[in-house]
Amino acid sequence: MENVKIAFFGLGNMGEPMALNLVDAGQEVRVYNRTPSKAARLVEKGARIARSPKEAVRDADIAITMLANDEAVRDILLAPAQPDGAAIDALPRGAIHMGTSTISVAFSKELEQEHSRRGQGYVASPVLGRPEAAAAKKLWVMAAGPGDQVERCRPVMEALGRGISVMGTQPWQANVTKIAANFMLLALLEAFGEAFALFRKSGMDPHALLEILNGLFNSPVYANYGRMIADRQFQPAGFRLKLGLKDAGLALAAAQDAAVPMPLASLVRDHYLSAIARGLEDADWSALAEVIAQNAGL
Fold it and tell me: Of 69, 105, 236, 288, which has fewest CB within 10 angstroms of its CB?
């Protein structure tokens, strides 16, 4: 892999192992995080820490964002929140922003316009996988953008994941793909919650049903989330419940723009709101099933 200068933003449950894999791949990585102490492991491995977003992107070939939502990406790149100004104005012409965050279609289109008018590239490349998959370089990358820019980013994507799907030449196409994929996972959590509530209320052990489902679907996703819900084990959170609410909102916003009814997304959104009202916002997003269980008197 050719040496690339990378600016990396966001060292949470997903971002830290992704950045570590890039350092291990021999890349020159400069990181910025609002909480500098989260960069300690990366600095030990050889990454450099930047004092501001603008400092992080100076001389970068690729800037990677792995942040919670539209607002976090906007604050890092577009807003002059730091004393030295907005980071996007310091990203060199010809450099590429590789956006791995789960963001809205509308904001992705805005980012494409902002980068284009500065002579910068933008490749949306959200990922599928939990933190343990990020650590093991087993994420699935969904990429979209101009073909030459996607190819420039491909070695970096390969250092992060086990597979890459190119979804089109317009970056927002990767974002709508991630939103649709996450909606399928939300639907899975809702279905597990309802099925297991029925099983428990009938005096039966949900683990017995899970064994059948694992044989039927033969899916590690079913096995992992099914076990968590059957065990009612929602801590520590690999992906926090309040981010699940964000993803349900992203699905509904995209559906409204495309004039696509998504009644299940509305139901899931309401169940997440109920979970947050019950103090579960920092539990794993699979704790959606607890709302269904509690509604059933379990």
Answer: 236
